[in-house]
């Protein structure tokens, strides 16, 4: 077929990622039914940003003046998710701080106190972005494992507006993944050409079918 100067195809309308999506924590998938279950983090404003950062290097070799295929090595492979959170709860503020505790014993207030050490329970099992492709309700799901807030807590308030808290969740591999050379994130991209509702796999799940658990 002839080469075209326009990149649009018949499938373009079904291959665009729409809107800001929703953010869930501790998302799990039933491998038998394909059903997703998780807790919505809350309303966001200004969108969300998933970032994968990879540092590569090539060894310096005398006489070689260009990159050589097969001689690139990965030094680091990291992922994080930036969430612009507008819905605030004591737990969300604790998650934004990272190393902190919530005292619920007071009658009127949940009391949040930061600390200078990180505990295992400060890590969320995962944080997940759930979006959808254009022209369909098929979900795109990105899961980051063992996440904790990386850049602290910033809250700015102003008249005629609501506070938005940016949270950068860094993904962390566990020891098994590190030994296997795996990264700490997974992207679930729906297969093309499937009929929605026909299979129990990821490709047949509706975006609104992610079941929310309680806080």
Tags for this model:
Pnp Oxidase, Chain A, 215 residues, nine-stranded mixed β-sheet, mainly beta, 40% strand
Q: What is the averaged pLDDT score? A: 88
> Uncertain regions: pLDDT < 50 for 5+ in a row?
195-209
Distance between the termini: 55 Å
Number of domain units: 1
Query: The CATH topology, please?
Result: Pnp Oxidase, Chain A
Query: Biggest sheet, open or closed, and with what strands and sense?
Result: 9 strands, mixed
* Helix fraction by DSSP (H/I, runs of at least 4): under 10%
Number of strands: 11
What is the correct CATH architecture? Roll
- Counting DSSP H or I runs of 4 or more residues, the number of helices is 2
> How would the global form be characterised?
globular
Order of helices and strands: EEEEHEEEEEHEE
Describe the overall structure:
It is a single chain. With 215 residues, the protein is mainly beta. The protein has one domain: Roll (Pnp Oxidase, Chain A), CATH 2.30.110. It is 7% helix and 40% strand. The protein has two helices and eleven strands, in the order ββββαβββββαββ. Strands 1, 2, 3, 4, 7, 8, 9, 10 and 11 form a nine-stranded mixed beta sheet that branches. A hairpin with a 5-residue loop joins strand 7 and strand 8 (139-149). The termini are far apart.
């Amino acid at each position: 077929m002839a080469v075209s100067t326009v990149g649009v195809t018949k499938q373009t309308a079904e291959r665009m990622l729409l809107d800001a999506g929703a953010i869930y924590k501790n998302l799990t998938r039933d491998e038998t039914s394909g059903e997703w279950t998780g807790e919505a983090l809350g309303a966001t404003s200004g969108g969300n940003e998933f970032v994968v950062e990879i540092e590569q290097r090539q060894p310096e070799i005398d006489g070689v003046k260009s990159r050589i295929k097969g001689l690139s090595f990965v030094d680091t492979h990291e992922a994080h998710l930036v969430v612009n959170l507008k819905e605030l709860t004591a737990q969300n503020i604790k998650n934004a701080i990272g190393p902190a505790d919530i005292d619920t014993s007071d009658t009127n207030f949940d009391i949040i106190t930061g600390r200078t050490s990180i505990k295992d329970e400060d890590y969320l099992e995962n944080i997940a972005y759930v979006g959808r492709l254009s022209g369909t309700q098929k979900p795109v799901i990105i899961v980051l494992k063992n996440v904790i807030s990386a850049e602290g807590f910033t809250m700015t308030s102003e008249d005629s507006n609501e506070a938005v808290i940016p949270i950068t969740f860094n993904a962390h591999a566990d020891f098994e993944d590190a030994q296997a050379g795996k990264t700490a994130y997974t992207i679930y991209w729906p297969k093309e050409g499937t009929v929605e509702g026909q299979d129990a796999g990821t490709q047949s799940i509706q975006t609104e079918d992610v079941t929310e658990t309680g806080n």
